[in-house]
Amino acid sequence: MNPQHFDERETRSPEAREAELFARLPELIAHALETAEGWQEHLAGIDPASVTSREALGSLPVLRKSSLLEAQEKRPPLGGYTTVAPTAFERVFMSPGPIWEPQAGGSDPWAGARALFAAGVRPGDLVHNALSYHMTPGGFILDYSARAMGCTVFPAGIGNTDLQVQAMAALKPKAYTGTPDYLKVIMDRAEELGVELGFLKLGLVSGGALYPSLREEYARRGVKVSQCYATADLGVIAYESEAMEGMVINEDYIVEIVRPGTDDPVAQGEVGELVVTTLNKDYPLIRFATGDLSAVLPGVSSCGRTNMRIKGWMGRADQRTKVKGMFVDPAQVARVKNAHAEIRRVRLTVLRQGEQDHMELSVETEQADGGLDARIQASLREHTGLSGSVKLVDVGSLPNDGKVIADERPIDN
């Protein structure tokens, strides 16, 4: 560690990082195919030696949580996606579904130490960890990371606010880890009880949105709060640095943005679903879809870290919507687009017209002819089973918000 960066890997050239990641990936895929039934089925016919670039990786199928859930029901408990037996892991956690998630080995299994360091935490600091330790890995993620970098952790968990204030008053932690909102609950309660928390200087939050107004309030109260983006299955994927210019992707993660409902990477800057590949030999996740929307930022951070950056969490990618009693999925809309080479981008809007649901497909195209809208309308009916109208629009006119399906029906309907 140095005063600015966790290690030299954070500041190497993007080209060197990319070369290292894609030199390691074929061996990981080969190992998964040799030892894990789930990966043997999911990546059937794939030659691991050919996956040496982002383009090659982008040709592999995305693994979504719905498929992982089905696999775990078929091959309990872990679906055949681990390369070692379930009993070889230190812990197994449960997320809604339920989806079972193993804890990998090592001192920092969820790779959160870099995020803590970027937030200002240093070896020897005491960290008050108010993430849940119950059933899910939330509390364990940053607990392990803080201890791996030489910090002492108070495992507060969630709730019991008065006791949390009491613990803070006694232990005087420098840093808080937890959800964005709960720190305010603790600080407000401390104020009511007449307890001074001036020793608390830093916060690293996750599990919810850190709104600018809340960040500013914490700053006024003397606490500099950063956020990281983490999931139970993947660990800490990205984190803010002192530059506050988006979120820096963690080392040893390969991140892509794909069009929701498809496996197809989008152009840089376009909003889509965040897909992650981890290089964890025991629990490899290859093109694993998070279900969250984000976008890649151009260039590198002014903090000196050279990895890819994303805008952070921008909403959920699951836009499956019920229309006239039938579900319409982004994958169906993608099939409509793929049926017509003239289409650049599409957006399906669901409205109410005359007390009925109505679908309107907006289509960006440069090559419209007299019959294109009718042909697309026929494809819409073919792939969704429902009729709808088609509106041809200029290229670049649709919002860059990651939405393939926009439900604009009044809430009371």
Layout: helices, strands, pairs:
Layout: H1 14-35, H2 37-42, H3 54-57, H4 65-74, E1 92-95, E2 99-102, H5 113-118, E3 126-129, H6 138-148, E4 152-155, H7 161-171, E5 175-178, H8 182-193, E6 202-205, H9 212-220, E7 224-231, E8 235-239, E9 247-249, E10 253-258, E11 272-278, E12 285-294, E13 296-297, E14 309-310, E15 321-323, E16 326-328, H10 330-338, E17 343-353, E18 356-365, H11 372-384, E19 389-393, E20 405-407
Parallel strand pairs: 3-4, 3-5, 5-6, 6-7, 17-20, 18-19
Antiparallel strand pairs: 1-2, 7-8, 8-9, 9-14, 10-11, 11-12, 13-14, 15-16, 17-18
Helix pairs in contact: 7-8, 10-11
Notes on the protein architecture:
- This protein is of the alpha/beta class and 413 residues long.
- Helix content is 27%, strand content 25%.
- The chain has a 9-stranded mixed sheet, with helices on both faces. It has a 4-stranded mixed sheet with strand order 19-18-17-20, covered by helices on one side. Strands 10-11-12 form a 3-stranded antiparallel sheet, with no helix packed on it.
- Strand 1 (92-95) and strand 2 form a beta hairpin.
- The radius of gyration is 23 Å and the shape is globular.
- The protein starts with 13 loop residues before the first helix and ends in a 6-residue tail after the last strand.
